[in-house]
Amino acid sequence: MAPYESDHATGTGPDEDPRTGRRKAARYVVPVAVVGVAAATIGLVPALAASGDPDLPKITAQQLVEKIAKSDVQRMSGTVKVSTDLGLPDLGSLQGGMGSGHDGDGSSADPRTRLTELASGTHTLRVAADGPEKQKVSLLERDAEYSLIHNDKNVWGYDSASNEVFHTTAQHSGDRREHRPGATPDDFAEEALKSVDSTTSVTVDGTARIAGRDAYQLVIKPKQSGSTVRDVTIGVDAKTGLPLKFTLTPKSGGAPVLDAGFTKVSFAAPPASTFDFRPPKGAKVTEEKPGKDEHAPDFGGQFAPGGLSGADTIGEGWTTIAKFDTGAKGDKEDKGDKTSQQGGAMGGFLGSLGDQVSGDFGKGTVFSTRLVNALITDDGTVYAGAVTKDALVKAADADK
Is the dihedral of CA 250, 255, 259, 262 positive or negative? Predict the structure, then answer.
């Protein structure tokens, strides 16, 4: 085994920016537990190139994690392909595809609605960034295009099919995270790395060519038996430390639940015109005052352990389970039959789709996807997480 070599991970080196002599704030908010985790968690075996893969300098998992944490790519552009397969219907087709608009008073250009299409199916994105004040992501579908542009204090969303525009003002100018699309490999990688702790194995598994660039392969695996995640693979650019590809594979096998990767990437500054936007003639413009809600959904968090925030939690690491009280208790009235109306109308609907289970907690229904499972009990309590059905039942029993 190769020992950890501090000179590979700290100080100045070939990846430092010679124009500044110092790093800006790290792109990733990686907790101290990731960088200083015990050797039992971070694999110290250096990466070895397989036949046909690029022959790169040896690096340990800890050094590679630190390289990602120090990555500070400010300018870039490229094309990203995102494929999501949770075993659910294609949400884009359910919404009628690009340019279908909304029901009600909402704008079809509102990013909170439009970018949720990435939660299923395969999509192509064009992305660009020039520092913390300028970012753009375009979602390409059929003959239409949806673009989200952050330029200084302005955030614009534009749906070319409906010719609708959404506009708001950035609350915190210079905050890169506030207006990013949340659907690129580095976004997903950031969430995964936040979850590295004693419940996780992290190793380097060779090298690869991604979007024409040399990359290391970082593999993250749960150590806990109740998780539905088999592993997460992050392709890390060997020069800049930027994650170029993110793949999440379920224990059930088959296609990845999530596969997001650059097919083209450049680290040259995009043309300034990339971030220019004026509402086209005749476009319907919806103005919204900035509030507490994010204007772009965070797709990374939903796949990482602990990603179900804002709820009571049970367990730790990859087997964390979120607990919600819907308030929809079962109908206990005797209506001439013994059919339980689990969880009210919602429970009855899910009961026709899910698996009936019982235990010390009572009775309930488990609704399953290829990654996240949810148990809805008769009394309206929901237990959900990237865990197996048995893990949900065991958690519900222990909670009573």
Answer: positive
Cβ atoms of 262 and 244 within 8 Å: the answer is yes
pLDDT for residue 187 is more than 90: no
Torsion of CA 285, 113, 259, 189, to 10 degrees: 90
Residue 243, SS3 per DSSP: strand
CA torsion 67→73→77→83, rounded to 10°?
A: 40
Measuring CA to CA, which residue among 223, 221, 216, 224 is closest to residue 243? 216
How many other CB atoms sit within 10 Å of the CB of residue 234?
26
Amino acid at 352: S
Widest Cα–Cα separation across the chain = 79
Contact 202, 294 (CB under 8 A): no
- The rounded distance, in Å, linking the Cα atoms of 243 and 185 is 6
Distances (CA, A) of 383 to 263, 319, 392: 38, 12, 6
> Residue 95, Cα to own-chain centre: how many angstroms?
21
For 330-342, the pLDDT digits (tens) are 544 444 444 444 4
Of 193, 223, 268, nearest to 40 (Cα)? 223
For residue 272, what is the DSSP state? G
Phi and psi at residue 18, to the nearest 5°: -70, -15
Q: Any bridge partners for residue 247, and if so which?
A: 233, 259
User: What secondary structure letter does DSSP report for 306?
Assistant: T
Give the angle 388-391-395 at the CA atoms, nearest 5°: 145
Helix/strand/coil for 361: coil
The rounded distance, in Å, linking the Cα atoms of 239 and 213 is 9
For residue range 218-246, what is the model confidence (pLDDT) as tens digits? 999 999 999 999 999 999 999 999 999 99
Structure tokens, 379: 């009394």
